């Protein structure tokens, strides 16, 4: 005999609290308001939980790399020194590979050269494309 009201269980299986809270929010079954609104996991107080992103200027990066060098020279571990300047270890090592032995004015010059290099590459690619178009037009392959 077939069951009339069979509901597949997979629809109602909740794997974690986030799914449970999302389901409650979707159905509107929030019940009583919580004592502390910022403790909710679905939208309120999210800005408190994430770290603010910031783009550092080249001079700031060089200064922070020097701070880490000073702290490690004083005997602190690299991980602790990196935490002290407020970045992650991955960011520190990426900065070190890019700005390792540079000074503040050298960073500015490096940025200018990179911008000029990008502009020249774009110009070369445009001229190459024009050359190919003219070559095809001259050969009559259009």
Low-confidence stretches: 43-49
SS summary, helix count: 6
Mean pLDDT: 78
Query: What is the helical fraction, as a range of percent?
Result: 55-70%
Biggest pleated-sheet summary:
none
The number of distinct β-strands equals: 0
Walk me through the structure.
It is built from six helices and no strands. It has 142 residues and is mainly alpha-helical. The radius of gyration is 29 Å and the shape is flat. It starts with 16 loop residues before the first helix and ends with a helix.
Helices and strands, with pairings:
Layout: H1 17-27, H2 46-49, H3 58-73, H4 78-85, H5 89-99, H6 104-139
Keywords:
142 residues, mainly alpha
What is the structure about, briefly put?
Helix content is 61%, strand content 0%.
């Amino acid at each position: 005999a077939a069951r009339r009201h069979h509901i597949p269980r997979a629809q109602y299986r909740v794997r974690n609290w986030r799914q449970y809270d999302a389901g409650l929010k979707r159905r509107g079954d929030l019940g009583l308001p919580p004592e502390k609104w910022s403790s909710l996991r679905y939208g309120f107080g999210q800005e408190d939980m994430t770290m603010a992103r910031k783009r550092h200027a080249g001079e700031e990066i060089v200064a922070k790399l020097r701070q880490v060098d000073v702290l490690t020279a004083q005997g602190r571990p690299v991980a602790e020194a990196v935490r002290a300047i407020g970045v992650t270890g991955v960011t520190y090592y990426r900065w070190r590979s890019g700005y390792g032995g540079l000074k503040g004015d050298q960073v500015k010059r490096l940025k200018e050269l990179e911008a000029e290099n990008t502009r020249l590459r774009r110009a070369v690619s445009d001229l190459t494309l024009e050359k190919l178009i003219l070559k095809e037009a001259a050969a009559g392959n259009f």
